[in-house]
């Protein structure tokens, strides 16, 4: 598992090296998200099952709003045998603070 800044994350997304996994609520996601992100709500009871259905051969950039929920989600991704994980330090807030692209 790797910790990355917003700028490093942007490069991974631009180079299509990661699938962006947004673990915020659907309401938060609809207010704005990283372009192309997949939304899996960490607070849902079936979160681990949903993670288990992800392609384990892909790399994932995981984030929430500020880093709390995504940090708690990391062990679940590891338990589901996701091998390549990047954590967006500072979360979506850090992404926005850098002025990076957001879609709604």
Helix tally equals 5
Which CATH-level-2 architecture?
A: 3-Layer(aba) Sandwich
Protein structure class: alpha/beta
Helix content: 25-40%
Please identify which CATH superfamily we are dealing with.
Rhodanese-like domain
> What characterizes the major β-sheet?
5 strands, parallel
Q: What separation lies between the terminal Cα atoms?
A: 28 Å
CATH topology: Oxidized Rhodanese, domain 1
Q: Work out the count of structural domains.
A: 1
Question: What proportion of the residues form beta strands (DSSP E)?
Answer: 15-25%
Shape: globular
What's the CATH class, please? Alpha Beta
Q: List the quaternary state of the chains.
A: single chain
Instruction: List the secondary-structure elements in sequence, H or E.
Output: EHEHEHEHEH
Low-confidence stretches: none
**Overall average residue pLDDT:** 97
Question: Top keywords for this entry?
Answer:
alpha/beta; 5 strands; 104 residues; 5 helices; five-stranded parallel beta sheet
Topology:
Layout (H helix, E strand, L loop, with lengths): L1 E3 L1 H9 L4 E4 L3 H6 L6 E2 L7 H6 L6 E5 L4 H12 L4 E5 L2 H7 L7
Parallel strand pairs: 1-5, 2-3, 2-4, 4-5
């Amino acid at each position: 598992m790797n910790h990355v800044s917003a700028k490093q994350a942007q490069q991974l997304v631009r180079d299509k090296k990661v699938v962006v996994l947004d673990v915020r609520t659907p309401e938060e996601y609809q207010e704005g998200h990283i372009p192309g992100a997949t939304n899996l709500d960490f607070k849902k009871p079936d979160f681990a099952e949903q993670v288990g259905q992800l392609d384990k051969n892909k790399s994932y950039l995981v984030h929430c709003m500020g880093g709390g929920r995504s940090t708690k989600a990391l062990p679940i991704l590891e338990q589901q045998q996701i091998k390549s994980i990047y954590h967006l330090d500072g979360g979506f807030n850090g992404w926005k603070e850098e002025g990076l692209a957001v879609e709604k």
